[in-house]
Amino acid sequence: MDSFQKKSTASDLLAEQESENALPLSGLQHLAFCPRQWALIHLEQAWVENRLTAEGRVLHEKTDLPGQSRHHDLRTVRGLPLSSRRLALTGRADVVEFRPEPYPVEYKRGRHKPDDCDLVQLCAQALCLEEMLGQSVPRGAIFYGEPRRRLEVEFLPQLRARTETLAAEMHRLYQSRETPPAKPGNYCQNCSLLNICLPNATAESAIQTRWNRLQRQALQIPA
Q: How far apart are CA 209 and CA 217, in angstroms?
């Protein structure tokens, strides 16, 4: 085997190993929304579909079928595979417009959320595109289904840092196989995993209360 073949084989093995270690880019949206939701889906393989998730799934099935089109100088690619070796992420973009710089567009069924979970997912797509294409991706957009309009997102340093931090945290949780305790809030009511998560019973405060009770019982200390 000559040196070129050895280098090619080593490169292929490295790429295969990196691919095996990559985590779904879409998991960043789950993690930013709720770390426990991410763990239930990606560690414990729990999933329950409700009306909101079903509507989102149907929307993506319509928008991210692989293909491309061109209108004058605008080229649109749908279902574009994405990956980042640096962040060990893999996924797919609903739509990427080339204007000529890449411009990712993510489709969501509902409205703009008060948290940054959708923004993080879109930013991760931009970071993948920059690494894959060697081009700057300064902005993109999220198309929300209820107002039926785009929200343009600028990928500022703070959002990029937040996305990279979440990617590192996702890999840490995956390696530790840790399912965080629940943090109950109003957002729990729309989560399809509500009856699996049981946030009021699995919150850190509830777990600590039960642990204290068991300790008192074991030591026969009155409550």
A: 12
